[in-house]
Amino acid sequence: MKARACIRKEYSVLFLCLAVVVLILVLRNMETSSQFQHEVNSTIMAPRVSTDPDVHQGFCTFQPLSPEDALEERLLLDSIAWPETPLLPTPLILEQTSDPAHSTFTILPGRGRRQWHVGGDQLEVRINMSDFQGRPKKSGGDLLLARLHNQTLGAGVAGQVVDHLNGSYSAVFSLLWEGDAQVEVMLAHPSEAITVLKRLNSEEPDRIGFKSLFRSGSISETTSCNVCLRPTQQPLCNHTDLRTGEPWFCYKPKNLSCDARIDHSLGYNTQNLRPNEDKLFQSGVNLKVYIQASGPASVTVSPKKEGQPEVESSTVKVGPSGYYYQGVWQALGGTTVRQFNAAAISQCLKGKVVHMHGDSTVRQFFEFLDATLPGLRVFDLHGVANTGPFIALDYANNILMKFRFHAPPIHSVHSISTREFRYIANEIDEIIGGTNIVVVFDIWAHFGTYPMQIYIQRLQSIHRAVVRLLDRAPGTLVVIRTGAPRELTLYYGLINSDWQSLQCYKVLRTMFKGLNVHLIDAWEMVLAHHLPHNIHPPPPIIENMINVLLSYTCPQMGG
Q1: How far apart are CA 344 and CA 290, in angstroms?
Q2: pLDDT surpassing 50 at residue 45
């Protein structure tokens, strides 16, 4: 019996050891499978579409993200959370909303009573908002833009605005030149308008619609398309990109298959505003209107005192990315922006391939370089006038330059062939990379009607592609142009507001922080300049942006 017991004990130990070995092998297999699945999913991703009620955003639906992407999305949304804006009565009572004409700003005393010096001091301005009856506002949430400038010197810098959530705000400016400095404060959107924009982006993301033509032989039919389509009895065509998972849908034609889709263009425009809400978007009244000073609107900045310590503002911890002086953008934070004439541009780009992807604001770079470089020749690819694709070659200097519009949503009145659609992430994945490759992209202006999650997820797929590019070719230069303030009317205020553009700007800067990429800070470059805001900044601003781009490309060149 004792021998049998010993044998049983030995077998038990043996079986236990075998079980442990099998468990280890299973876990390793699961880990390998998980790693393989992750590698596959980094390139081929399932469409982000779901019927799970927990992931609904209005009637937009998305497939649940990976834990990492979901956490990043949550942190990004938290980082741009706007102050609570007031609930609006129906009909809206305009007299109770923010009025720039009754609001004022005041320059606060500097050190040594009203003394300011270059470098060590910052100028702080207090802004007090009131309604149309002159009553002080008690809540925050207004979008205010601030600039310090001296037009004679061609100088300007953007201010950093802080919302105190009680109707008052601070604007803080770095003092970067000697002489006069004039303060400008603008109400871009009252808080009540942002309440409307929040509701519209959640409940009416399809207020800008798109359409596609489906054709097979002599049969053709046009249906509506969008990132988010309202549920109807009509079945949907799922045109979600299989590699990035970017969602896109069309209502299915009655007599044609989904594969018969041949083009894309802008469709309908519906603005479902409640009574009087249009009054929150009045040019010259409460849409991009300057606020007056309650006292002096300018200061005189003296030279820096010898031994004067650098002073860090207690209100704002993040300074500007740069400023203008004599009309030239001066970057702060390490990059020296040099000036490039046509000959220097040709020398800088010699032997390089420049890939440009995005919207019409990056197309401006292509157009500027095409107009500047005498040896550059644009090939006629018979693309659509505004969306391309475009390609240009300077044979003598071995310069190849490309531009391609990003994939939908695209606000184009012209018909675009669906065969020309390219998602930026997919295009980046096709680039071999190297020290002779420059990649420039932007994406923001066509996302103004959607929940921010749609923009974040588009950026996440681009971010993954950029990481893969820099992993395989670390010497590749990647430059990102940010969004910027634009001219606003009722129409543009509702579909491409400065509020939504600012949110996109913040998300983009945060998402690509720490990655080996460079930014062209178009937001501050437009805001700091004296020229009026425009979706397509005028030539002096574009020239400065090009100089920033080329300074990243050829840091040892230029004048």
Answers
A1: 40
A2: no
